[in-house]
Automatic annotation (TrEMBL):
One of its GO terms (cellular component) is cytoplasm. Residues 231-288 form the tRNA-specific 2-thiouridylase MnmA-like central domain. Residues 297-378 form the tRNA-specific 2-thiouridylase MnmA-like C-terminal domain. This is tRNA-specific 2-thiouridylase MnmA. Disulfide bonds join 115-212. One of its GO terms (biological process) is tRNA wobble position uridine thiolation. Residues 162-164 are annotated as: Interaction with tRNA. PANTHER family: MITOCHONDRIAL TRNA-SPECIFIC 2-THIOURIDYLASE 1, TRNA 5-METHYLAMINOMETHYL-2-THIOURIDYLATE -METHYLTRANSFERASE. It comes from Blastochloris tepida. GO terms for molecular function: ATP binding; tRNA binding; tRNA-uridine 2-sulfurtransferase activity. It is found in: Cytoplasm. Belongs to the MnmA/TRMU family.
Length: 393
């Protein structure tokens, strides 16, 4: 068990001010405590990202009212200054509005990626520099290490079950050079053990589960309020063109979904059905057999490259990578290439249920500790066996 950390800043720790992003959870609290014990000039910052008054009594959401109280108590316990910054307007514009718009477009977004990219590692990092900090430190389970060319590389956590690199692929190189993630080599059990040893009041606090701004986990309430067109009813259509039923809004569906279709248990003539596409323009949910979910090619947008050289050179060479298309799936072999529509990934073995709006993250190898080479937003996929009838396409 470690009792201090080295943030790789050179010189004496007391010569460096660092800002720690404190969510009120055990991970960021331990990071703040270890940085303070190491002698760094630590400033704790907690972000108020939405109307936390409505969430004070809701468990399982970060950055809510109780979390701010917990972060303040930890800061007092370890003897560091603590500030709460009101980022509600920025968060609404950069995260919540984009979340709703993505669902209305028939996608399945990941708001945590936008929050990290556009708020925590952009606005908060800028604030940290304004405070005279050398780096911004967080409790994410990833690592950065200095590369031979002097840059810092982003690496998966050694504990693959805790790894959060999927949500951080959009971090830019400039941001990476100013970020530190001290928990990348620890397990969650290690972190809690440190919290207990230090006597932190959040040592046994449960992890966040919900999307922080979604009350009771009902994301459809948020989407319907901001994008009511996403709740408009439409047809459920089979790949062969048959209209099988009606739905109450495409925002309630995601590619790969089987339950909740409202089609006699998801069956049509004895055939198990899955959502294979969402047609937002025509308000249609397209369903079909499981084999229709298999995809070999993924078209990407908003690609962020963290590998060596340039993205263009990597695509031109057809660089071998391992990719994750969902946070819970293991990396799979693929090739990063330049296709007719721009950046694309060609999967060696195919994947099922790849949803537009999710991330496709590139790694140099499949295991824990692998280097993150970047990633992009899934724009669309090409099915391994095209099955769309002219009536549906």
């Amino acid at each position: 068990m470690i009792d201090a950390i080295d943030l790789d800043l050179g010189g004496a720790p007391q010569d460096h001010r660092v800002v720690v992003a404190m969510s009120g959870g055990v991970d960021s609290s331990v990071v703040a405590a270890l940085a303070a014990r190491a002698g760094y000039d630590v400033v704790g910052v907690t972000l108020q990202l939405y109307d936390h008054g409505a969430a004070t009594h809701r468990k399982g959401a970060c950055c809510a009212g109780q979390d701010i109280i917990d972060a303040r108590e930890v800061a007092q316990r370890i003897g560091i200054p603590h500030y709460v910054l009101d980022y509600e307007t920025r968060f609404r514009d950069a995260v919540i509005d984009r979340f709703a718009a993505s669902y209305a477009a028939g996608e399945t977004p990941i708001p945590c990626v936008d929050c990290n990219q556009r708020i925590k590692f952009a606005d908060l990092l800028s604030t940290a520099r304004d405070l005279g900090a050398a780096v911004l430190v967080t409790g994410h389970y990833v690592s950065t290490r200095r590369l031979p060319d002097g840059r810092r590389g982003l690496f998966r956590a050694r504990d693959e079950d805790r790894d959060q690199s999927y949500f951080l692929y959009a971090t830019t190189q400039t941001q990476l050079d100013l970020l530190r993630f001290p928990l990348g080599d620890l397990s969650k059990a290690d972190t809690r053990a440190i919290a207990r040893a230090i006597g932190l009041p959040v040592a046994e606090k449960h992890d966040s589960q919900d999307i922080c701004f979604v009350p009771q986990g009902r994301y459809s309430d948020v989407v319907e309020r901001l994008k009511p067109e996403a709740a408009e009813p439409g047809d459920i259509v089979h790949l062969d063109g048959r209209v099988l039923g009606r739905h109450a809004g495409i925002m309630r569906f995601t590619v790969g979904q089987r339950r909740g279709l409202g089609l006699a248990g998801g069956l049509a003539a004895g055939e198990p059905l899955y959502v294979v596409a969402l047609d937002a323009a025509r308000r249609r949910v397209v369903v079909g057999p499981r084999e229709a979910l298999a995809a070999r090619r993924i078209v990407l947008r908003e690609v962020n490259w963290l590998g060596d050289g340039t993205l263009e050179a990597a695509m031109a060479a057809g660089q071998d990578v391992h990719v994750k298309v969902r946070s819970t799936r293991p990396p799979q072999r693929a090739v990063l290439a330049h296709g007719p529509e721009g950046a694309e990934v060609r999967l060696a073995d195919g994947e099922e249920g790849i949803a537009p709006g999710q991330a496709c993250v590139f790694y140099d190898s499949p295991g824990g500790g692998a280097r993150v080479l970047g990633g992009g937003v899934i724009c669309r996929t090409e099915l391994a066996k095209p099955t769309l009838s002219p009536a549906v396409a």
